[in-house]
Design a protein that fits this description.
Helix content: 55-70%
Pfam families: Fic, Fic_N
Protein name: Fic family protein
Organism: Mesorhizobium humile
InterPro entries: Fic/DOC_N, Fido, Fido-like_dom_sf, Fido_containing, SoFic-like, WH_DNA-bd_sf
Domain Fido: 127-278
Strand order of the largest sheet: 3-5-4
Shape: elongated
Order of helices and strands: EEHHHHHHHHHHHHEHHEEH
Distance between the termini: 36 Å
Length: 382
Amino acid sequence: MAAEGRSGRYVRQPPGYRAFIPSPLPPNPQLTIDAELQNLLSRADRALGRLDGSIQTLPNPDLFVMMYVRKEAVLSSQIEGTQASINDLLKAEADIYDQQMPKDVDEVVNYLSAMNHGIARLDELPLSVRLIKEIHEKLLHGVRGHKLQPGELRQSQNWIGPGGSNLNSASFIPPPHEVAAEALSDLEKFLHAEDHIPPLIKIGLSHAQFETIHPFLDGNGRVGRLLIAFFLFERRLLMRPVLYLSHYFKQNRQEYYDRLQKTRIEGDWEGWIKFFLKGVGDVAEQATETAREIVSLREGHRSIISDQFGNSAGKANKVLEHLYRRPTVSINNVRDVLGISFPNASALIDKFVEAGMLVEITGQARNRRYFYAPYINLFSNL
């Protein structure tokens, strides 16, 4: 049941513009769960369950999480206009200098840092305004937006719109800062309220509400997307944080913005939740397929090693396992992992290259680095 004013109302401010004042969640009248919405919820729940189960079959689930988190860092940052790819991120982490590397790779590195910080902090701190502020500080530290109060709720009016827009021409004007702080506190209470709202519906409502509140001067989209993964992890709907919707939101960018705006103007929470649940189902199924592909890839490469590497197969399998932890490697890395000489490590790397498992990425004669390309491509072919 969509109804104008259901999500809040526009209120004219003293300077003359109209800002949106959100109503606390849950929506009133309450969400109408029709057959379509129920089917989407059931499908999303089943897809999450299958994803959680498939992750447990991996040789080391945490290694999948590491790469999947990197994929999300890249995609979520790209929505905000960055150009860096997952390969750029891996090079930056391995301290590989590349003059072609986009300068905004630091923003992706920060996103990764913010994500890992949030996941670690959930062991000791609930999903809260305090944690949201910590994540925001990590996100903007030392990069574009670092002068826009990292880690602090905004103290001035912001707005959403195309480049060059102002308060008079903006597409959407969030609540004034003092109202935003109160609304964010209400959102925290809603997240932890004891009620009968299905968790996936609760986080869908909460993500939209966060984007409406827009509590920071910059970084709201990225923080809002992180909240989804953190909530599912905190509630143990997933034993590991491996559901990220940035790919879905990026593919359906205009519908994403339109659905959010319809919650504000028309009170159409049902349309938004259906869109959100479809995304959860789609992304969970894709992640499950990626997990299956990793298992298949690993077994295929172990077979190649067994068939082609002769007496060095045992050492090669140790290198293979290392590549799932860190898919960027050098001859020195292999030497240290195996405790062998540099020439022997170099010869072993050559075997991996000949087998198509490693690709040299520096183009240099010395200090060469290699990507475990078949594995990286499972995450970067989007």
